[in-house]
Specification:
Blueprint lengths: L1 H20 L12 E3 L6 H17 L5 E7 L7 H12 L9 E7 L4 E7 L8 H17 L3 H15 L16 H27 L77 E9 L1
Parallel strand pairs: 1-2, 2-3
Antiparallel strand pairs: 3-4, 4-5
């Protein structure tokens, strides 16, 4: 009887575990740092964020693995349970250091949460996470600027935790590379031409002075007729044409990454083969509505 009861309890726990983990999308293979299931970002924006977060992970010697995930909905759970379950099922962060950090956005519920791994809870107390949300992330999401919310929010998370921002990987909102190179070459050629012109003018020998000749003046009749000097109007200098930078993105993608439909993840229950490091989470962090 006792063995039968233990077996039933084990089956019940197993079923509960499957039902819970079945509500989360499978982790990307290989691991990705920007996963936009809710389609809140363009292909360029998602790729820019991916480059930035990977660069931040390398720059900080793999001491924080910040992952941004957007989902269409929370599958009936509250955002705290969902974020914790997703972060643990994916195993974000290192298994020994537990340095994972999940930045989650739920589209339908209009909620965002920062889920902190065990090893980062001292750097990111709940009050600090709430401050980052209230001052940086939620106002941008409320305005409908999702990329600004995840981009500036990710930067704020790194800076507030004492981590370094990557030296590159920032999105190029102004000049793109080809336009910058063309502009540099254009102005370089103009500068060289001016220098050569000045050099040739200085190198050219000055003409020999002319011997003054005796000037014979005709007898004056009623006065000296003077030639009127006509002043020529000065030509206005032509305005230099400036090359207006065109908005572009780096790197540029025409299409977003193809992922299975969010509803297809109901069959997943075990992500032990995840490409992440197996980090654990204890529920620390903060969340809010926009």
């Amino acid at each position: 009887m006792q063995k039968t009861l233990q077996y039933l309890i084990f089956c019940l726990l197993l079923c509960c575990n499957i039902s819970i983990y079945g509500q989360y999308p499978a982790p990307p293979q290989p691991a990705e740092y920007a996963v936009d299931y809710a389609n809140l970002l363009t292909a360029d924006e998602e790729q820019q964020l991916e480059v930035f977060l990977k660069a931040a992970y390398s720059r900080n010697r793999e001491k924080i693995q910040l992952v941004v995930v957007t989902v269409p909905n929370l599958a009936g759970q509250n955002i705290k349970e969902y974020a914790n379950g997703l972060a643990r099922s994916w195993g974000i962060g290192d298994a020994e250091r537990n340095d994972g950090f999940l930045f989650l956005i739920a589209k339908e519920e209009r909620q965002a949460r920062l889920e902190v791994g065990y090893g980062l809870e001292e750097k990111y107390p709940d009050l600090l996470c709430q401050e980052i949300l209230d001052l940086t992330i939620l106002p941008a999401l409320k305005d409908g600027d999702y990329f600004k919310g995840v981009w500036e929010g990710s930067q704020s998370i790194l800076v507030k935790g004492g981590f370094k921002l990557p030296a590159n990987g920032y999105p190029n909102k102004g000049w793109n590379r080809s336009l910058t190179i063309m502009a540099i070459l254009f102005f370089s050629v103009i500068f060289i031409v001016i220098i050569l012109g000045v050099y040739q003018a200085l190198k050219r020998p000055s003409p020999a002075p002319k011997v003054p000749q005796k000037v014979y003046q005709a007898p004056l009749k009623q006065g000296i007729q003077r030639k009127r000097k006509h002043k020529h109007p000065q030509k206005k200098p032509k305005k230099q044409q400036t090359i207006k930078p065109k908005a572009s993105s780096y790197p540029k993608l025409e299409q977003k990454k193809q992922r299975p439909s969010y509803s297809d993840y109901a069959d997943y229950s075990d992500y032990s083969d995840s490409s992440f490091g197996g980090g654990d989470f204890g529920g620390g962090g903060a969340d809010g509505f926009w």
